[in-house]
Amino acid sequence: MGPKVSFFISLSIHAVLFISYYLIRNLNPENFSEQIKLSLSKGQVPSVHFSLPKNQGEGQDTSSNSGLAGTPEAEIERFKNEIHFPPEALEQRLESDCSWEVMIGPNGSAKRVTTIKPCKYKVFETHFKRSVSSWKFQLPEGNIIIIPVSFRIESDE
After folding, report:
1. C-alpha distances in angstroms, 103 versus 34, 87, 115, 119, 147?
2. Structural domain boundaries of the chain?
3. pTM, whole model, 2 decimals?
4. H/E segment holding residue 5
């Protein structure tokens, strides 16, 4: 594809976006508090920046889709979806199943973490405690939850 064709395609896409923005804005102007910025510089790739008004385009909270929103079960799943496999354990192909009891403290922080089922390798224990110490649970202070985590390497074999 030649440079003229690339430029024409890029210009067409930007023109359609720009025209669409103004048509939509004129139909419903109270919904737009931010702007679309189009940056064109000689010798650079053109870029378009979109900014949505606050609380627009965020969608539903994923924990509310399960029907368990605000429950200990939903919080456990929310946390488990955010904990990652420690890279050093992945390199060594280490795996383990572990469980912890967590007491919720002020502002949703983990006040007390007790090991129920210890991990085979210390790297998992350290990683869990580091992750849970920075996590904010959406449960009232004093709640106690049990978080089982299965550190497994999934393969296609």
Report:
1. 42, 27, 12, 19, 11
2. 3-49, 63-151
3. 0.53
4. helix 3-27
